[in-house]
Amino acid sequence: MPMDRDAFIITPAEMSAIDRDAALSGIDSFRLMTSAGMAVAAAALRFYPEALRFVILCGPGNNGGDGYVAAATLCRSGVPTGVYALGDPARLKGDAARAHAEWGRTAESLAQYRPKPGDVVIDALFGAGLSRPVPDEAAVVIRAIKHEDLPVIAVDLPSGVDGRSGQVLGESFHASHTVTFMARKPGHLLMPGRTLCGRLEIFDIGIPERILRIRTAGLCENGPHLWAGHARALDPSAHKFKRGHLAVFSGGPLATGAARLSAMAGLKAGAGLVTLASASAALNVNAAHLTAVMLKEVEDAGALALWLADKRVSAFVLGPGFGDMETARRYALMLSDRALVLDADGITAFKGDPASLFDAYAGGETRLVMTPHDGEFARLFPDIEADPSLSKVDRAIAAARRSHAVIVYKGADTVIASPDGRAAINTNAPPWLATAGSGDTLAGIIGAHLAQGMPAFEAAAAGVWRHGRAGAKAGEGLTAEDLAAAIEPLPAFS
């Protein structure tokens, strides 16, 4: 997978390994800390020149060391500062101890800090490595600062936010600005951490990219770099079948709209043909609403088997508004040699027997994409969902490996995960995408990419990205019909 340096996402554990590798390669670790602390001080002066006082809260580890460097830099700049320490600074070790010594002053106890109007707080308590709830002493101060609504600059990550999962560990700052180093952490992008970081600045403190690449496991921000090699411009000589034939299964006569949204999205996303497969009871309803999308009667498994003899039907979407769980199970298993997007009722249909679905798609290249929201995810993967030690990224990867499918774990922080361990966090979705029919539209976009021959992970990643772009273009107050109409051409992003 080609990697864009700006798209790197590095877990706290990977960052610790990168720091060790940098030191072993001969890079002065204290110089890295100095660069980090000076970057924080520069951000403070740049964004808050009107501050009456900069208050630096220093923790018992290297994040606190960054804070002492920032404090020394601000003191040299001639601005008023106050430094408050969590724990005894005499117990600091390594670079943090050196940073405290070079600052050369006495820090007051964190419990002594009383927020004042005009204070700008620099949060250097814990950073991204925190894995347990913040201690009570810190929680009290965090709440007091939030009560006074003081601006907070977070060093690496707002204290109290888990850098791996984005979850709040008891209490956390809501930063107005966050300065992190070398690359973003999952907690910067996963909810609710993303909403607590404010403006995010990534500062290169001098670790070579080759060291980052060795330790990076393949997690990145979703974007065009993931599918650039698969977003081909249209061949002027191509006929409609060469552009892919997508089939979408309709629900019954009172539940046809969801499938039509998927079908229209598939057509807008670039499939050469889209056919809506409908039982006889829903034929007239669908026929009254369709023009460019074709309609085919598929009454039962026998009719589907006959249709599958046409190998030009290259991808399928099953689940939006489908309703009939038994038929959904049967159809999904019959399609096991084709590319399939399984959504909504198609996922729920396997609640009692997910292994039969996973086994059916286990061989060969990945050809199944599932698009669950939280509730649907729990129906197929209850044990993974219930494990509190797993982040959303961890859960998506574990589910992808078990199911032999690409998982699009939907939400404001949608995660796309592949059975091979690759994963991407999507960030371009506006909040108004949370509307009826939005997921149906996403399924159709991904289905179009599969029909055009894109690999499953790239098809899903590109689909989620285009879905977010369409939502931003359609604007607040959109309906799902608006969303399909706002889909932009994929080659424009490659």
UniProtKB/TrEMBL annotation:
<feature type="binding site">
    <location>
        <position position="159"/>
    </location>
    <ligand>
        <name>K(+)</name>
    </ligand>
</feature>
<feature type="binding site">
    <location>
        <position position="63"/>
    </location>
    <ligand>
        <name>K(+)</name>
    </ligand>
</feature>
<comment type="function">
    <text>Catalyzes the dehydration of the S-form of NAD(P)HX at the expense of ADP, which is converted to AMP. Together with NAD(P)HX epimerase, which catalyzes the epimerization of the S- and R-forms, the enzyme allows the repair of both epimers of NAD(P)HX, a damaged form of NAD(P)H that is a result of enzymatic or heat-dependent hydration.</text>
</comment>
<keyword id="KW-0067">ATP-binding</keyword>
<comment type="function">
    <text>Catalyzes the epimerization of the S- and R-forms of NAD(P)HX, a damaged form of NAD(P)H that is a result of enzymatic or heat-dependent hydration. This is a prerequisite for the S-specific NAD(P)H-hydrate dehydratase to allow the repair of both epimers of NAD(P)HX.</text>
</comment>
<feature type="binding site">
    <location>
        <begin position="62"/>
        <end position="66"/>
    </location>
    <ligand>
        <name>(6S)-NADPHX</name>
    </ligand>
</feature>
<dbReference type="Pfam" id="PF03853">
    <property type="entry name" value="YjeF_N"/>
</dbReference>
<dbReference type="InterPro" id="IPR036652">
    <property type="entry name" value="YjeF_N_dom_sf"/>
</dbReference>
<comment type="similarity">
    <text>In the N-terminal section; belongs to the NnrE/AIBP family.</text>
</comment>
<keyword id="KW-0413">Isomerase</keyword>
<feature type="binding site">
    <location>
        <position position="123"/>
    </location>
    <ligand>
        <name>K(+)</name>
    </ligand>
</feature>
<feature type="domain" description="YjeF C-terminal">
    <location>
        <begin position="223"/>
        <end position="494"/>
    </location>
</feature>
<dbReference type="Pfam" id="PF01256">
    <property type="entry name" value="Carb_kinase"/>
</dbReference>
<feature type="binding site">
    <location>
        <position position="373"/>
    </location>
    <ligand>
        <name>(6S)-NADPHX</name>
    </ligand>
</feature>
<keyword id="KW-0547">Nucleotide-binding</keyword>
<feature type="binding site">
    <location>
        <position position="440"/>
    </location>
    <ligand>
        <name>(6S)-NADPHX</name>
    </ligand>
</feature>
<protein>
    <recommendedName>
        <fullName>Bifunctional NAD(P)H-hydrate repair enzyme</fullName>
        <ecNumber>4.2.1.136</ecNumber>
        <ecNumber>5.1.99.6</ecNumber>
    </recommendedName>
</protein>
<keyword id="KW-0479">Metal-binding</keyword>
<dbReference type="InterPro" id="IPR030677">
    <property type="entry name" value="Nnr"/>
</dbReference>
<dbReference type="InterPro" id="IPR029056">
    <property type="entry name" value="Ribokinase-like"/>
</dbReference>
<keyword id="KW-0456">Lyase</keyword>
<keyword id="KW-0630">Potassium</keyword>
<feature type="binding site">
    <location>
        <position position="321"/>
    </location>
    <ligand>
        <name>(6S)-NADPHX</name>
    </ligand>
</feature>
<keyword id="KW-0521">NADP</keyword>
<comment type="similarity">
    <text>In the C-terminal section; belongs to the NnrD/CARKD family.</text>
</comment>
<keyword id="KW-0520">NAD</keyword>
<feature type="binding site">
    <location>
        <position position="258"/>
    </location>
    <ligand>
        <name>(6S)-NADPHX</name>
    </ligand>
</feature>
<feature type="binding site">
    <location>
        <position position="439"/>
    </location>
    <ligand>
        <name>AMP</name>
    </ligand>
</feature>
<dbReference type="InterPro" id="IPR017953">
    <property type="entry name" value="Carbohydrate_kinase_pred_CS"/>
</dbReference>
<comment type="subunit">
    <text>Homotetramer.</text>
</comment>
<dbReference type="InterPro" id="IPR000631">
    <property type="entry name" value="CARKD"/>
</dbReference>
<feature type="binding site">
    <location>
        <position position="156"/>
    </location>
    <ligand>
        <name>(6S)-NADPHX</name>
    </ligand>
</feature>
<dbReference type="InterPro" id="IPR004443">
    <property type="entry name" value="YjeF_N_dom"/>
</dbReference>
<keyword id="KW-0511">Multifunctional enzyme</keyword>
<feature type="domain" description="YjeF N-terminal">
    <location>
        <begin position="15"/>
        <end position="213"/>
    </location>
</feature>
<feature type="binding site">
    <location>
        <begin position="127"/>
        <end position="133"/>
    </location>
    <ligand>
        <name>(6S)-NADPHX</name>
    </ligand>
</feature>
<feature type="binding site">
    <location>
        <begin position="410"/>
        <end position="414"/>
    </location>
    <ligand>
        <name>AMP</name>
    </ligand>
</feature>
